[in-house]
Design goal:
By secondary structure, the protein is an all-alpha fold. 73% of the residues lie in helices and 0% in strands. The protein folds into 2 domains: 136 residues, Alpha Horseshoe (Serine Threonine Protein Phosphatase 5, Tetratricopeptide repeat), CATH 1.25.40; 105 residues, Alpha Horseshoe (Serine Threonine Protein Phosphatase 5, Tetratricopeptide repeat).
Length: 243
């Protein structure tokens, strides 16, 4: 089963996790056992990423489970992703955690639960969860909703609606949303070809990646350049169409 990657709470946490002293894990563990959810979450992050401690996914999972039990529903989603990536899917633990996360208000949890339904080809239920995720402002949920309308999975195929959801994902800063919108505009299959709009969306995707490229993420530099090339191709097609 696919899960959301690159947007989850776990990746955000490592960016903000401060340097820790040698006694910090013990202090956090004591607070976590006393019921402090924030301490459980931070302790889980430390073990998940090896920040100041030896990386230990088992201990990370224990800390995340306490945080999840304490009502940190985005952490329930993170724990579900850990199970999905490292354990057998047939035991249902990851899906149960995604459901718990979604019911608690985690938009990422709703998306991952929807992907679980989609994996069983229960697209109608999947779409309802993608809608819930997108309505909460989660750009990857909007992206997946756009894909549903483009592919006709759980809904009738509708290029205009697919573009609308892809555009919303792009507005939320999701590169894939911009690229999907640009690709659909350029293909001219479900909607009339519009290379000028395709150029704009590819350009927006490249601009998003340029920020991370400038901060030193080299793989994003290569992808940015590829999208700039696609924008140039779309620009040439638009110029040709205008003659």
């Amino acid at each position: 089963m696919a899960t959301v990657r690159g947007w989850r709470r776990l990746l955000v946490a490592v960016l903000w996790l401060p340097a820790t002293g040698c006694g910090e894990p013990s202090r956090l563990n004591a607070r976590c056992l006393a019921g402090d959810v924030a301490s459980c979450t931070r302790l889980g992050d430390m073990y998940a990423f090896g920040q100041g401690v030896e990386r230990d996914l088992g201990r990370a999972g224990e800390a995340y489970a306490r945080a999840c039990d304490g009502g940190a529903y985005d952490v329930c989603n993170t724990l579900g992703e850990m199970h999905a990536q490292s354990g057998p899917l047939e035991d249902g633990r990851s899906e149960a955690l995604f459901q718990r996360a979604c019911e608690g208000g985690s938009s990422a949890g709703c998306l991952n639960l929807g992907l679980a339904f989609a994996g069983r080809e229960d697209y109608v239920h999947a779409v309802s969860l993608f809608e819930r995720s997108c309505a909460a402002g989660w750009a990857p949920g909007c992206q997946q909703l756009g894909h549903s309308y483009e592919a006709g999975e759980g809904v009738r195929a509708d290029g205009a609606k697919a573009l609308a959801w892809y555009g919303q994902a792009c507005d939320g800063g999701l590169v894939d949303g911009c690229v999907s919108a640009g690709t659909l505009h350029l293909a001219g299959t479900l909607v009339a070809a519009d290379p000028a709009s395709a150029q704009q969306f590819f350009g927006r995707a490249a601009a998003i990646l340029d920020e991370s490229c400038q901060s030193g993420v080299e793989r994003d530099c290569a992808e940015r350049d590829r999208l700039r090339a696609r924008a140039a191709i779309a620009q040439a097609a638009a110029a040709q169409a205008g003659r």
